[in-house]
Amino acid sequence: MSSSTSEPRRIRRAYVWIVAIVVVLFAILTGFWFYAASQLDEITSRAIEDAERNGVLVSCLGRDVVGYPFRLGIVCDDLALDVPRNGVTVDAGSFRSAAQIYQPNLVVSELDAPVRIETADGPPVDIGWNLAQASTSFWTEGLDRISIATDAPRVAIGDRSIFNASGGELHARRREDDLDIAGVQRSAKIDLPQLSGVPNFDLSTDLTVQGAADWLSGGASGLSARELFADRSGTLRSLVLTFHGDPTGADVSGDFAFSADGLLSGTFDLAVTSPERLASIVGSIAPEAASIANTVASVIPYVGTTENGRTTIRVTADDGQLTAGVIPLGQIPPLE
């Protein structure tokens, strides 16, 4: 009889211990979360103060730390930046970020549109999207990788729309001392009168810039294109342009290097479909490149190899001077 009555007691004691352990663990988790939340809020405050000392005023209305108990993140009802010395203001919508409590170095964030950029000497720029998300990973040297995805991005200057797309992505990651960059814009359209006849296009790129890993940690801040790429080399695995409902397209790949003066050198494989049509489009987008584009289009049939309507040529750049074999194609201006 005693054996039969002691068994339920043991079970009840086991349940009590289980409940007690759960309560203790949850109390520890709660204490850790609120400690981590206070540290995150303090770090955010210091970052805003550091920005202000550098002349950038950051406004995060309704700032709060959220996510209890398993996530941790900062939210703002409205996010804004003001750079008085440059006469630039940026106003955005709500900002939300979150990281799992067990993986605080991986942060997922969202920013609501629209974003309005105003300058002292130009019309306002409005940037919109249906959804914009970013994933950032931090490690001992700072930002380790970042991915940004937008759904239906669009840009307007003043009251005129100039760009829209069905979606876009940008990815960058640190690989030892180098920086890998990949991006894509899908079904993009540039709304300018001179490009009214150009169909929607897809544009993607995949490249590595040697020695540029510190760009993720702020090393690229405030530098011009020439300063960024001076004496740098890298590999362009692909730069692909295709048009919807149009056979025109191009694919470029090769190794490249820039001089201290911003002049390009390298050897590239250029694959083109409908080169004359592509030259016309390039001339519309960038009139300063029209001469080179037309020269390349005229040379391609003679020096390239054609397969399935796609012609490939080898193009060499030597301090900005382009050649296809012994045929000069023109001069690429230096980076500014």
Automatic annotation (TrEMBL):
Pfam families: DUF2125 (PF09898)
UniProt KW keywords: Membrane, Transmembrane, Transmembrane helix
Membrane spanning residue stretches: 14-36
Protein name as annotated: DUF2125 domain-containing protein
InterPro entries the record matches: DUF2125 (IPR018666)
Lineage start: Bacteria, Pseudomonadati, Pseudomonadota, Alphaproteobacteria, Hyphomicrobiales
Keyword Transmembrane: yes
